Amino acid sequence: MSDRTADRELLDRAQRRIPGGVNSPVRAFRAVGGVPVFVDRAEGAYLYDRAGNAYVDFVGSWGPMILGHAHPDVVAAICAAAARGTSYGAPTEQEIRYAETIGELYPSIEMMRACSSGTEAAMSAARVARGFTKRDGIIKIEGCYHGHADFFLVKAGSGLATFGAPDSAGVPKGAAQDTIVVPFNDVSAIEAAFEAHPNGVAAIILEPVVGNMGCVPPDPHYLERVRAICDRHGALLILDEVMTGSRVARGGAQQLFNVKPDLTVLGKVIGGGMPLAAYGGRRDVMSVIAPLGAVYQAGTLSGNPVAVAAALATIKHLTDDLYRRIDKWTADLQQGLSSILHEKGVPGVVQRVGSMFTLFFTEAAAVRSWDDAKGCDTARFGRFHAAMLAKGVYLPPSQFEAAFVSGAHGPSELDQTLTAARSAIE
Ligand code: KE4
To answer: What's the average model confidence in pLDDT over 11-23?
Structure first.
């Protein structure tokens, strides 16, 4: 990999005008060290920097780019839509087609609202749950991320069933006081939270496969048990499928694990790599939203015609063959990385669901919760990340992020990645 002078110069310049030089914190590489790559363009499985260095991309814009970058059909759809005007602030037929398409992909989504980010979608879903149930409590899972709405930036309270405390400066105690944080894959902790707040919990929200502590699958039957607890206590089940939606399966984790949420939060893949996200679910629940009901939610660019065109063009390519290919490719990578860990005697485990995966440097046999994840050797991950980058492989710059494979990753990318890993894992 040639020198990264251009990136260093760009970072210096960026930091004068943008906090940390980035428009989203994780991009700053603070968790792994080193200088972030300033991307000049991307195509297929690759990112290219200003110096022309090519990187096999496993971030994929944090999930959306399941077809690979600059897919010709998606680019053509964007150009055609833009030529008809980039935003109207008025209803369009394409938005109806989009809502119908999402409803076909996710039968639990009888009605939906499009918006512009996963944060907005998750925040709105929680507000709808509170408006529908007339309860204030929200249970969230430690290690799950649902965007940066105040009441989600909360760390676990002292006791399992106590309300959380702000996990970010600028979040008032009042915003955190109705959020209860419990561990993932721990049904008894959820039971305890509901027992401690009878009729006080509007909903539980979780990533059905957690991507935001690295890729952590649900234990067998966990999701169905959470569903049953919600039913017992009259609370809503919100699945945050921003990352897993049409990633782990065409119909998301709810299809893969056969669990039916009351509300689903979507983004990334179903947004076609544009600022497009959505939330939706039961018709009776979604009917509380203005202008039908008393729960307010709005957005200037919600259902933007250019973004919807990109999304519809992407969804057209979400075929059974695509999922077969990317799941197999990722399984082969998982196998290869696991063999290298074993051959080198390096403690670690590669966890995967479909085409999202994480290599955890840990002594634990598996990472099942945030408690397990936070015990990982993040310094070793940082060295691994830097060594892979130097060999043209671009992994998510954090031990606690999932990596993603696209339909554009082929045999040569698999070879390059495993060859790089053979020297990078130590
Ligand atoms: P956005 O507001 O970033 O579009 O979506 C928030 C969000 C909601 N729910 C889940 C499960 C998510 O993973 C996300 C955002 N994911 C992060 C990566 N872990 C986006 C990358 C970033 O923050 O820059």
So the answer is: 98
Which of 30, 119, 152, 274 maximizes ligand 1 atoms within 8 Å of its Cβ, making it the mutation to test the pocket? 119
| Residues recognised as catalytic | 145, 240, 268
Q: Are 242 and 265 in contact (CB under 8 A)?
A: yes
> Is the confidence at residue 107, as pLDDT, over 80?
yes
- Average pLDDT, stretch 84-96? 98
- Pocket test residue of 243, 244, 301, 358 for ligand 1, highest count of atoms within 8 A of CB: 243
91 and 64: one domain? Answer: no
Q: What is the pLDDT of residues 315-341, one digit of tens each?
A: 999 999 999 999 999 999 999 999 999
| 3-class SS shares of the chain: helix, strand, coil, % to 5 | 40, 20, 40
Find out whether 35 and 7 touch, Cβ atoms under 8 Å.
yes
Distance CA 345, CA 291 (A): 60
pLDDT tens by residue, 65-83: 999 999 999 999 999 999 9
Does 51 lie in the same domain as 175?
A: no
Question: Cβ of 412: how many Cβ atoms within 10 Å?
Answer: 10
Which DSSP string corresponds to 89-145? Answer: SS--HHHHHHHHHHHHH-TT-SEEEEES-HHHHHHHHHHHHHHHHT--EEEEETT--
Q: 277-304 pLDDT, tens per residue?
A: 999 999 999 999 999 999 999 999 999 9
C-beta of 397 in contact with ligand 1 (< 6 A): no
CA of 142 to the centre of ligand 1 (A): 15
Closest of 360, 146, 175 to residue 241, by C-alpha? 146
51 and 180 part of one domain: no
Nearest atom within ligand 1 for CA of residue 268? 4
Name the residue with the closest Cα to ligand 1, atom 17.
62
Cα(63) to centroid of ligand 1, in Å? 9
* 156 shares its domain with 186: yes
- Check: CB of residue 52 under 8 Å from CB of residue 43: no
Cβ of residue 241 lying under 6 Å from some atom of ligand 1: no
256 C-beta closer than 6 A to ligand 1: no
Q: Are residues 129 and 233 in the same domain?
A: yes
Residue 384 has pLDDT above 90, yes or no: yes
Per the structure, the complete domain to which residue 47 belongs is given by 5-70+318-424
